[in-house]
Amino acid sequence: MPKKTDPLTKDEMQDAAKEFYELFSVVHAVMPDKTTVEDTLKIMENVAKLAQKKRADTREKELTEKFGFNKAEKEDNDA
Known about the structure:
Oligomer: single chain
Structural class: mainly alpha
Order of helices and strands: HH
Number of helices: 2
Low-confidence stretches: none
């Protein structure tokens, strides 16, 4: 297993580039015409922050939802 300080391999760079360009394309596709790469990168940074916040909020909500003995009991309407 490579150390943290070892140079990246070609395969690692290809995997990272593929993932990056997929995410870049998602953001760039909704940007106005004639948007520069620099503008897209700036927006991408803010979109990533928002996505991280939304992920954290969703996770927090899932953790605080009713669970275990706190679950709401199912109502038996068939009785």
